[in-house]
Amino acid sequence: MLYRVLDGIMGFSNMLNRWLIETQEKKMLNPELKLTEIAEFITVSINGCTAIYASSRDPGIWKHTISQLTYYIDSLKK
Questions:
Q1: Band of the pLDDT at 3, cuts 50, 70, 90?
Q2: 28 in Cβ contact with 19 (< 8 Å)
Q3: Which of 5, 61, 17 is nearest to 41 (CA)?
Q4: Mapping DSSP to helix (H, G, I), strand (E, B) and coil, where does residue 78 land?
Q5: Which among 61, 64, 65, 43 has a CA at the least distance from the CA of 52?
Q6: 3-state secondary structure of 1
Q7: What is the pLDDT of residues 5-57, one digit of tens each?
């Protein structure tokens, strides 16, 4: 079971990485970015948010995380 969860998380990170590569190929992102690390950071942020939300059920947790990730992603743009 644990490996299925880990596989799912890594699959999501890999999908994000492919999207970032496509976006960079379209010259929408700074060419010097480390895309794998960015995909992993976003994945970890979302999963951390999920754990915090599960313990509190506070929708503000999601709103704050989405706001911060939006700001971060916007900073990657060329």
A1: confident
A2: no
A3: 17
A4: coil
A5: 61
A6: coil
A7: 889 999 999 999 999 999 999 999 999 999 999 999 999 999 999 999 999 99
Residue carrying structure tokens 């998380």:
9
pLDDT of residue 61: 95
What DSSP string describes 7-61? HHHHHHHHHHHHHHHHHHHTT-B-TT--HHHHHHHHHHHHHHHHHHHHHH--HHH
Structure tokens at 64: 């704050």
Please tell me the distance from the alpha carbon of residue 59 to that of residue 35, in angstroms, as a whole number: 29
| Distance separating alpha carbons of residues 14 and 58, to the nearest angstrom | 29
Instruction: Read off the pTM.
Output: 0.88
